[in-house]
Design a protein that fits this description.
This protein is α/β, with parallel strands linked by helices. The chain contains five helices and five strands; from the N terminus they run αβαβαβαβαβ.
């Protein structure tokens, strides 16, 4: 019986070591600089680290708060159209964000409840973003799926 328990424990340790690492990023920042550093650059670094260790990092980003501005097809006729800092880098940001979805398989989830408060419509959100009822629901679901939690705030 002891050998059986030891065998199960050993198998459990091996399984834990081979588990896919997962992270959910709670994205609320409105800062272009912070967004570039903590999302566009950081995710690539972490993905490459795990790939170098023969693992694939699963990344989900829950979008709410000030972060809606980064995921619009167009800022015209939105509350972000006069954001000069955003306008300077918007075209480049859109390209890099799309690459995060396509190349790095990052899952983007946007809080629909906050969209309404910010007067944003689903047809102006980039196509790779999935709408979820609330950010809290998205964070709860991902954490219950074993995702580690990282906030990116102002």
């Amino acid at each position: 019986m002891k050998k059986f328990i030891l065998l199960l424990s050993f198998i459990g340790l091996l399984s834990a070591d081979n588990a896919t690492p997962k992270v959910v990023i709670d994205l609320t920042t409105s800062s272009v600089e912070k967004f570039q550093k903590n999302i566009l650059k950081s995710i690539v670094v972490h993905k490459n680290y795990y790939e170098g260790n023969l693992k694939e990092l699963e990344v989900a980003v829950v979008i709410h708060g000030g972060a809606y501005r980064f995921f619009l097809k167009d800022t015209k006729n939105t509350i972000y159209e006069d954001d000069k800092e955003l306008q300077k880098s918007y075209a480049e940001l859109k390209t890099r964000i799309a690459s995060m979805s396509d190349t790095y398989d990052v899952e983007f989830l946007m809080c629909e409840s906050g969209m309404k408060r910010n007067k944003l419509k689903a047809d102006n959100i980039v196509s790779f973003v999935k709408l979820i009822p609330t950010s809290t629901i998205g964070l709860i679901d991902k954490q219950n799926e074993g995702f580690a939690y990282i906030p990116v705030r102002d």
